[in-house]
Amino acid sequence: MPAALSLQDVRVRFGDRLAVDGVSLDVRRGEIVGLLGPNGSGKSTTLAVAAGVLDPAEGVVAVEGVRRAADPAGFAARVGLVPQDCALYDELTAADNLMFFGKLYGLAGRDLRRRVVRTLSRVGMAGRAGHRVGTLSGGMKQRVNLAAALLHDPPVLLLDEPTAALDPAGRDALFADLARVRDDGHAVLLSTHRLDEAEQGCDRVAVLDRGKLAALGEPGALFRSRASDRAVLYGHLRARPPRFLVRAIRHQLGPRVELDVTGRRLRLAAESSEALGRALARVLTEGVEMDTFHTPPGTLERVLRHREAGARSGVAP
Amino acid sequence: MTRPPLSHLVLALAGKDWQLFWADRRAAVLCFVVPVVLASAFGLIFGRSTEDRAATRLPVAVVVEDDGPFTRRVADAVLASDRLEAVELTRAEAETRVADRRPGVAVVLPRGFERVKDWTPGGGGDRPPVEILHHPTTVAERQWAEGVLTETVMRGLAREKLGGLAGAGGDAFAPPFRTEAAPVTGPGRAHFNAYTHSFCGMTLQYLLFWGMESGLLFLRERQRGTWVRMRAAPVPLGAVLLGKMLATAGIALLMVLVTFGFGRVAFGVTVTGSWPGFVLLALAASGLAAATGLLVAAVGGTEARARSVSILVILGVSMVGGLWLPAFLLPGWVRDLALSLPTTWAMRGLDGVTWQGWGFAAALPSVAAVAGFAAVFLAVAVARLVAADRRGRRGGCPG
């Protein structure tokens, strides 16, 4: 299947710095591709180039064969963008927002009104059409935000960190919407810095590192290849532990386990999931309480299984 | 899908701004109420002062420190003057009350004033002083009091020197002429209505404030995700700017209609001159408000900085342009400087077509000047906004 969105050898410069360095990527209809990378890796810049709001210094960007340089209006009409900040007017209703953005894409009259109703229904927001956006929850806003990008039925949908302001339930709902959008035949490219989202929500993942495409593939294959990497857990502590306690726990854990505590943030790394599980149990035993913690997916489950197994056997894990 | 016609895009963008304006209804209503209230208040203050000026008597304190008969007669004449509301006080009392501006002027006839009666024309010699104590803000009142005192003293001297003339008495020493005041309001000799001036001034000032507010909204909008979405849509920047102009100018025109409509119903504010001239001036002033808004958005930098500088500039050009008070109260050099401001021309034109009875041809230079300023503001704003957009597309803002 030909690519709906094609980026070829794209380079973007901010002054002397190369923010995107030779990225080539195709996104086909009916797939969700995640741009994964830490902050500053070039995800948002790549998306901005794909959306046509930023011109690359070098390289070619095309949507269904239409290049922005050759046909800016045709290119823009084939792309739906969900920017990182909520791109809606809080003062207007959900329906009025969609009516406005629809008109920018040449939609009008009965066709526009029908699309507004249908698109809001598609994201489960038909009942809130007359509500001002400012009165909606973060999750609802993001769904209307998504609807505004889908209104003109573009083949390519671009989302910049769409889950940044959402709680876990909102994230799940958004990815369910995106899965439906993909199944309807759209090509979806989204940026995220969360490994779990990339693994669970994307069909393919492009890993960006300092503007370069470091890896590209299906998440299963990509993350299996990381099995030999160190297992890592990030936690948010209920209270900042005293330094002597951190030193004491670090001493108990030994040199093969890394324990870093900065304020109320904790990072724990070990050479395997099992070792990480044992280390976590030791930390908790010493009375360090955590509000939340997460690990890259695939690791968390193993850690939890190890703890559960240890508890059942009555042996301190 | 092809790009929609430019007119559709412009109307959609202007419609969105219109909706955003009315989304906060209370704020929208205040946009119309505030200029009406201020214009009414200014009209009330200056209207009354104009109408009552003929009957106004200047409050003055009189301090008599010489006990000579001539001095007493002068003092009594000053106290009885129908142009003064004079009261006799001691020097200490006068100094205390003048410092509080109750009244703002005191005339002191000091010891030795009696020698004035010995004055002869061309006599020269020592002239006894007369002190006029006044509050620092009452320079005009001081001159007024000085004039009345001079006349009173000269009449008293005439009576002293020529008192023996047959028939000299009563009003015999009044000036040998009488004055007739005739307010000149323009070729139509229309009746001056102070409310008309204040409604013209306050409407213009609030058009500029609305332009500023529109510019600040645009500045804010460009920091939001909606701007990114708009720039990703098949919409040229020109359409965005035209839509913004259209919405701002449309609302400004509505402000003119509402303000003058209220002025007409409540205070009889009317157009005594050319109606087409008035309409053209209203259109030009609304365009000026819209261009000012784009200029604020283009050169304002941050919202807070743009707001502070804009308020300062708008208040400055309003005052110097004669929007608050008639321009003749300003020093000559300020009036010359004011010719370089759009507010001066707009005010001159509106005053002309409303209460001065200007015809269409007389209004055209003002229309041309206001439209010219709007065109210059627009050109600068568009050039800067287009340059900023190009910079942004070339990577001026990291993503």
Fold and architecture overview:
The complex is a heterodimer of chains A (317) and B (399). Residues 299-317 of chain A have low confidence and may be disordered. The longest helix of chain A has 16 residues, at 168-183. Helices cover 38% and strands 28% of the residues of chain A. Chain A is of the alpha/beta class and 317 residues long. In chain A, strands 6-7-8-3-9-10 form a six-stranded mixed beta sheet, sandwiched between helices. A four-stranded antiparallel beta sheet of chain A has the order 2-1-4-5. Chain A has a four-stranded antiparallel beta sheet with strand order 12-13-11-14, covered by helices on one side. Chain B has 399 residues and is mainly alpha-helical. Chain B has two domains: 6-49 and 196-396, no CATH class; 57-162, abc type-2 transporter like fold. Chain B has 13 helices and four strands. Chain B has helices spanning 6-23, 25-52, 69-80, 91-99, 139-162, 194-221, 225-232, 237-267, 275-299, 303-320, 332-338, 342-354, 360-396; strands at 58-64, 84-88, 105-109, 131-134. In chain B, strands 2-1-3-4 form a four-stranded mixed beta sheet, sandwiched between helices. Chain B is elongated. The chains are: A alpha/beta (317), B mainly alpha (399). The A-B interface holds A 12-14, 19, 44-45, 47-48, 51-55, 57, 72-74, 76-79, 81, 83-89, 91-92, 96, 100-101, 103-106, 108, 132, 145, 148-149, 152 and B 1-4, 8-9, 12-13, 15-16, 19-20, 23-24, 224-226, 228-235, 392-395, 398-399.
